[in-house]
Amino acid sequence: MTSLAVPMEHVLLIAAVLFLIGFAGVLVRRNVIFLLMSLEIMMNACGLAFVAAGAKWGQPDGQIMFMLILAIAAAEVAVALGLVLQLERRFDTLDVDAASELNG
Amino acid sequence: MELTLFYIAAAVAIAAAALVVTRLNAAHALVWLVVALLAIAVIFFLLGAPFAAALEIVIYAGAIVVLFLFVVMMLNLGRRSITRERLWLEPGMWIGPAILTAILFGEMIFLIASSDTGDAGSPVGPKAVGEALFGQYLLAVELAAMLLLAALVGAYHLGRRYLRDRREEAS
């Protein structure tokens, strides 16, 4: 097996940068759709770290974790976009702060 | 050669992710999200994970982003939403999160720099992944299937109520 030339530190740093960009997006944005997109970026950063760790040890476990993240992301997006439609229907806005009170 | 490609893909991924977070128009942000996902797929490929790269393109850029696009089109966000978005996104709001993320990034750099990690190991082919996935991780696959079924039922329930309310409003 050939070894890869990419330095591990740089992969982890890129995963960290992507995660923090998504994190800043979650903190700043008020539109639910942008919030969900930021969450997708954060999940991708986690997946990148998992795949890099799997490659580091030459084991398939990292990629399997990435696939489970993929399944979780798909499930999360399906339910969350249904909630976005409900939010728009009930409050006529996409502002998450509109749904800050928990009374049906 | 591989290293140059890796840095180019990384720069594209970070720039596209930053653009996703700062866009005002949701459709434009989605297109930048696709660019970021494709760049991450290239990084996966260079890390010796071709199967993960293919899944990233097929499921993330293919299925999940299209789902987002459907909802954005259903909500019919027009020019009004862009002006509203500009109201919501004052420049001063970025200061706090920027400081927090800068602190976290500094800690991350410190931790990564203080540990000796070396090169990114060896490639892992799809065969090894498949064998492990349907061998020792079979239970996790079953659980993922249950989760997706639950998400399907939940999304159907929420979406059906939305459409029914719409129809009542129209009549």
Word description of this protein:
The complex is a heterodimer of chains A (104) and B (171). Chain A is mostly helical. Chain A has three helices and no strands. Chain A starts with 7 loop residues before the first helix and ends in a 13-residue tail after the last helix. The model of chain A has no long low-confidence stretch (mean pLDDT 87). Chain B is mainly alpha-helical. Chain B has two domains: 2-123, Four Helix Bundle (Hemerythrin (Met), subunit A) (Up-down Bundle); 125-171. Helix content of chain B is 81%, strand content 0%. Chain B is built from seven helices and no strands. Chain B has helices spanning 2-22, 26-46, 50-75, 79-88, 95-114, 126-133, 138-170. In chain B, helix 2 packs antiparallel against helix 3. Classes of the chains: A mainly alpha (104), B mainly alpha (171). Chains A and B meet through helix 1, helix 2 and helix 3 of A and helix 1, helix 2, helix 3, helix 4 and helix 5 of B.
- Helix/sheet category of chain A: mainly alpha
Number of helices of chain A: 3
> Rounded to an integer, what's the Rg of chain A over CA atoms?
17 Å
Report the end-to-end length of chain A measured between terminal Cα atoms. Answer: 58 Å
Outline type of chain B = globular
Give the topology string of chain B: H per helix, E per strand. Answer: HHHHHHH
Classified by CATH, the class of the largest domain in chain B is Mainly Alpha
Number of domains of chain B: 2
- CATH C-level name of the domain at 30-94 in chain A: Mainly Alpha
Give the helix proportion of chain B (percent range). over 70%
How would a crystallographer describe the biggest sheet of chain A? none
The helix/strand series of chain A, from N terminus to C terminus, equals HHH
